[in-house]
Design a protein that fits this description.
This protein is an alpha+beta fold. Helix content is 21%, strand content 32%. It folds into 2 domains: 2-114 and 243-265, no CATH class; 129-238, no CATH class. It is built from 7 helices and 18 strands. It has a 7-stranded mixed sheet with strand order 5-4-2-1-18-3-6, with helices on both faces. Strand 8 and strand 9 form a beta hairpin. The relative contact order is 0.22.
C-alpha cells in the first residue's frame, strides 16, 4: 500500500483506502465484504471522476444489504466496478507502476455508444450475474436479444424497455429530471438520463445501499449511478442510517486488507 501511495503522489492522483470485513455467507462460506455505505460512495464517484480500484484481497459487495449475507446476494467487486471504472487485482506483490499501467489501460478502454448502451445501466441492480461481455459489440447484441422488449401495450414513450429476471421493466425515460451531471469513460452523459423502472410483482428494489418499496402500479426513476428518485415509493432501508449487523457483528473479524480508489478529478468535482 505504501508503494502504491508513493506512486500515486508521483502521478498526481489521490488514493483513498477503504477497509473490508469478513462475514459468514452460510453454507460454510465466508467473504470479505465492502460496507454498503462505502459501496455507495465508490459507485457514485465512478460517475464523477476517473476511478481505478486496486484490490488487495478478493472483495464482494452486498446486493441486498438489509438482509443477512448469503452467496446469491453478493457480487465480486470487479463486476461491481466494470464498465464504469478500472479494477486491478494486487493481491500479489508486484511493481506498482505496472498496476497503474493496467489501471490506465482499463480507464482508456471505457466507453459507450449512446444513451441506450447497456454499459450505462447500473448492472449490479439490473443483472448482477450478467455473463455477456458488453465491451464487445457482439456481447451487447446478445444482451439486447435477451433483455430488450418491445412495448406492445404502448406504455413507454420509446416503444421498448429493458427487462430482467426479476420481472422489472426499465424504460428509457423521455422526461429528463434535473439530476446530478454524470460522466462515464471521460464523456458527459446526457443530463438527467435515467430509466423509469417498474418493479412488477417483487415491488422491492435495492441499489446496494438503499431499499425501496412501491405500490403495484408505481415506478421509480433509476440513474446510471444507481441514484433512485422515487416520489411514489417508500425508502425502507438506508446504509447511512441503519445499523450493520450483517458485516459488523461481534463474531466477525475486520480485515486489514483493503482497496484503494484512484480519483483523478474530472470535469465535475465530488458532490
Amino acid at each position: 500500500m505504501t508503494e502504491l501511495r508513493e506512486h500515486a503522489a508521483d502521478v498526481g492522483a489521490r488514493v483513498d483506502e477503504v477497509r473490508t470485513a469478513h462475514a459468514a455467507l452460510g453454507q460454510g462460506r465466508t467473504a470479505l465484504l465492502l460496507d454498503p455505505a462505502d459501496a455507495a460512495r465508490l459507485y457514485q464517484t465512478l460517475h464523477t471522476a476517473a476511478v481505478a480500484v486496486f484490490a488487495f484481497a478478493g472483495t464482494s459487495v452486498l446486493l441486498q444489504p438489509h438482509e443477512p449475507p448469503h452467496p446469491r446476494a453478493v457480487q465480486p467487486l470487479g463486476a461491481f466496478v466494470r464498465y464504469k471504472g478500472a479494477y486491478v487485482d494486487v493481491t500479489r506483490p508486484g511493481n506498482p507502476g505496472r498496476a497503474w499501467d493496467r489501471a490506465n489501460a482499463e480507464l482508456a478502454a471505457l466507453g459507450w455508444d449512446d444513451a441506450n448502451d447497456p454499459r450505462l445501466l447500473p448492472m449490479h441492480c439490473f443483472d448482477a450475474g450478467c455473463l455477456e461481455d458488453l465491451s464487445d459489440a457482439t456481447g451487447r447484441e446478445r444482451f439486447g436479444d435477451g433483455h430488450r422488449r418491445r412495448d406492445q401495450a404502448g406504455r413507454y414513450p420509446g416503444g421498448w424497455h429493458w427487462a430482467n429476471a426479476d420481472g422489472h421493466e426499465w424504460a428509457p425515460a423521455k422526461a429528463r429530471h434535473a439530476l446530478q451531471p454524470l460522466t462515464v469513460g471521460g464523456r458527459d452523459l446526457p443530463r438527467g438520463l435515467h430509466w423509469d423502472t417498474k418493479l412488477g410483482g417483487s415491488r422491492e428494489f435495492s441499489n446496494g445501499w438503499q431499499v425501496w418499496a412501491t405500490a403495484k402500479t408505481a415506478y421509480i426513476n433509476v440513474a446510471p449511478n444507481a441514484h433512485v428518485r422515487a416520489p411514489s415509493a417508500q425508502k425502507t432501508w438506508d446504509a447511512e442510517d441503519a445499523p450493520r449487523p450483517p458485516i459488523r457483528a461481534p463474531q466477525v473479524g475486520r480485515s486489514r486488507a483493503g482497496l484503494a480508489a484512484r480519483r483523478r478529478k474530472a470535469k465535475y468535482p465530488d458532490r
